[in-house]
Design a protein that fits this description.
It contains twelve helices and six strands. It is α+β, with helices and mostly antiparallel strands and 278 residues long. A hairpin with a 5-residue loop joins strand 1 and strand 2. The radius of gyration is 47 Å and the shape is elongated.
């Protein structure tokens, strides 16, 4: 009987030792700080490693999930594009026709600015005249500028033909019609295509050195262009003459080109020194 209590005491001691051994060797349970800071999968480990490599420090769950502040959006517009329309139009008025056309091919914003009607109106007044500031061209000022420039080039070609004294070029320049008219500085009127060509033949043959034309300068050239009719007024300063001539040329648009249908030149009269009707 004395051995039985000793046996019970030994068994209780063995059970206690077993429980203590199990408690000591249990797997560690994750705490809340460890779960927040220690990645538990490959993807999270990779992200944490990348953040450390970039010099970032994760202090807690809020810091890791914090979204960086968005950068201010860039407009991408140049200084020229950010100007108000009035300033842009004034700036473009300093460009010539060719530069304005080149500017319109840079981007869409510059194309809108370079095609602005106000810019081409300002360019028209700078290159040609301000006399037509109150008109409204049906196709806009850009088209009107192009039409005016074309008729000015045609008008310059007419006087180059006179300088050269070329009758074939002059015959091709005029419209072959019975209503064309030519009034030279002598005051004589020629009506009809054949009569007009004969008048130019006489003028070229009368020129110096057997047909060499006379040199002169054109000044105060003003043009007005409609759909198929245009007229040009100017002063013609002929070398060797005491004063300039008044000249008016009228053109018609036929078969995709301009033809002359009327030419009138006359000697300018000196202004009267006093009022003749006073």
């Amino acid at each position: 009987m004395d051995a039985f209590p000793a046996l019970i005491a030994a068994g209780a001691t063995a059970v206690c030792c077993l429980v203590c051994a199990i408690w000591a060797f249990r797997p560690p349970s994750p705490n809340k700080h460890q779960s927040a800071l220690t990645p538990t999968c490959c993807s999270c480990r990779d992200k944490a490693t990348a953040a450390s490599a970039n010099g970032e420090m994760a202090i807690g769950g809020d810091e890791m999930n914090k979204t960086p502040a968005p950068a201010p959006a860039a407009t991408g517009a140049s200084m020229m594009e950010q100007l108000v329309p009035e300033i842009t139009t004034h700036a473009l008025s300093y460009l010539d026709c060719t530069s304005l056309c080149h500017l319109s091919m840079t981007n869409s914003a510059m194309r809108r600015a370079a095609n602005d009607d106000g810019a081409w109106k300002a360019l028209y007044h700078k290159d040609f005249t301000v006399e037509q500031g109150n008109i409204t061209p049906p196709n806009g000022w850009k088209a009107y500028y192009a039409a005016t420039k074309a008729i000015m080039n045609v008008n310059a070609e007419f006087y180059n033909i006179i300088r050269e004294g070329s009758l074939p070029a002059m015959s091709h320049f005029w419209l072959n019609a019975d209503y064309v008219k030519c009034i030279n500085a002598s005051g004589e009127l020629f009506t009809g295509y054949n009569a007009v060509m004969n008048s130019w033949a006489l003028l070229f043959n009368w020129g110096q050195d057997g047909g060499q034309g006379t040199d002169f300068q054109l000044r105060d050239v003003r043009a007005r262009v409609l759909s198929d009719v245009a007229w040009v007024n100017m002063k013609v300063h002929v070398d060797g003459e005491p004063g300039p001539l008044h000249a008016t040329n009228v053109y018609e648009f036929r078969n995709d080109r301009w033809y002359m249908v009327h030419h009138h030149s006359s000697v300018m009269v000196d202004p009267a020194p006093h009022n003749l009707f006073g």
